[in-house]
Amino acid sequence: MTFIATEPIGSIPRPAYLQQAMQAFQKNEIPQTELSRLFAQATRETIVQLEATGSPVISDGEQSKPSFVTYPLHGSANLAAGGVVIPFADGHTRQLPQLIAGPFKYEQYAADYLIEAKKYTALPVKQAVISASAMSLLYPAEGIPGYSQQQFIADLLDQAEADIRKCFDAGAYNVQIDFTEARLALKLDPSKGLLSQFIDLNNQVFDRFTAAERSRIGVHTCPGGDHDSTHSADVPYTELLPLFFKLHAGNFYLEYAGEQDKKTVLQSIKENIGENQKVFLGVIDVLNPRIETPEEVRDLLVEASEYIPVAQLGSTDDCGFSPFADDVSTAREIAFEKIKARIQGTKLAEAKVK
Ligand SMILES: [Zn+2]
Question: How many angstroms separate the Cα of 36 from the Cα of each of 30, 67, 119, 160, 331?
């Protein structure tokens, strides 16, 4: 039988007790020790439930990450409010902090989440980290006296490399870079200058790794998923993909189930995917609470196998189910049911593809 790899993207909605505890902690109503205990409990419960779906690769569900983008910055004294604003289609926004002083240093590395997760499972664990390009947005346009943008980029490259390397050192099965600003970059700058700049920056990080390590480095792109809304779904995928596959990475985790014109997307992947690259197609729409059937997942993968060699094809979810800690728009149980459908549907596809 043919093997088709299947992996989650990362986040799973936090249980209600954890949501409440995070809010209570914000208001100084519970101590850090209590919050940490509940983070550990939620991580353990998430991994048990992920294992029960049959998932061959596990993530910690990002139960203790404040968000997929801000985790390295938690508690940094060099940051202030008022950074880049990301507008979503439904009108809500997310705002990044901005750097006010150097040197730039991660306060938290993703490997810490991995080490915690590995306590609770013997299965391979993947770890998601934020892209260097997303972190590059923290440097203010007006500059910082005494800390040049050039010095910032040098520090940023070191930190982004360290974030990935620590994951490998801690035994990550693979590392996924969350590069959700890729498609957004095309919306902000249709000339593709900003996207090219982002790709170049991320490649500078990837080039610090060996070819064998790079085969275990992946990148995720999506039109942004927060409170069931997107920030760049209106940017045609075919504009993004030719540049996206220029990333010096082995695995590409692409939002796909939510795309309207799937044949055009498959054709573009076929034209642009490199020999040593593998594409994990999103077969689960995380913005829609309806649970896909395994047969629907199978059919998407069988169709994709007509364009992409099966050895270079995998399945995933379109995005994390809850990239920001306070997003409860997709119920936790629905997320696990959808993951189960992906895994069963991928098995059905294995029996059908050639
Ligand atoms: Zn995503």
Answer: 10, 16, 15, 25, 23
